[in-house]
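If you are new to this repository, start here. Below is one unmodified record pulled from the training split, so you can see the exact layout before writing a loader.
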Amino acid sequence: MHGDYPSSKMCDQTKPQAAAVPNFDLSLMEGRWYITRGLSDEFDTYPCQVACNRRVAKDRVNLSIWYQIPLDNGKLLPQVSNQSFFNPDPTTPAHLRQHAWMNGQDDWYVIAAKADTYWFVKYCGTSDTWDGYGGAFVYTRTPTMDPALEPELRAAATKAGFDWDKMKVTHNPNCGIDATPEYGCPAPSDSVVV
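And here is the target side for that same chain:
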């Protein structure tokens, strides 16, 4: 299979790597975040996406991501995904990589970030069954994105080689995920950073 966004040639990592945030600090990703914009219909635009992230080492961050998959009968199937990303190259700290099942490898490039406000990723991946899938997403601290952020995010998308206007708004309000303990994140003292 080949990726939905929109062809395998779009997973050329040259532009996202060049656009990666210099001196990126993984601690910016810690805590609770919501995906408020997504590019790939296959991976990035599910409703009610919330993540709890913990930095567990100097070069590694763990993510627990809750989301819902709309079914043909109108119901929503709750899902949770646990991922661990590491930084393979200290000279490009905004390049994060995950090696996963089916000989898979995801490469994330944080192309823009603002402390306690947002981080923006362009990614590409490959596995035994799917070559060249990819997309992009914006995580914000709030369930909806502040429209005032759009100019800087648009500029980051352009620099990373894709069109901001193809990003879709995700639906996070009224998901029952704002105050429940299930979606809480551990206190910073619970993180282990070496």
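Two things worth knowing about this chain: Confidence is low (pLDDT under 50) at residues 187-194. The longest strand covers residues 60-70.
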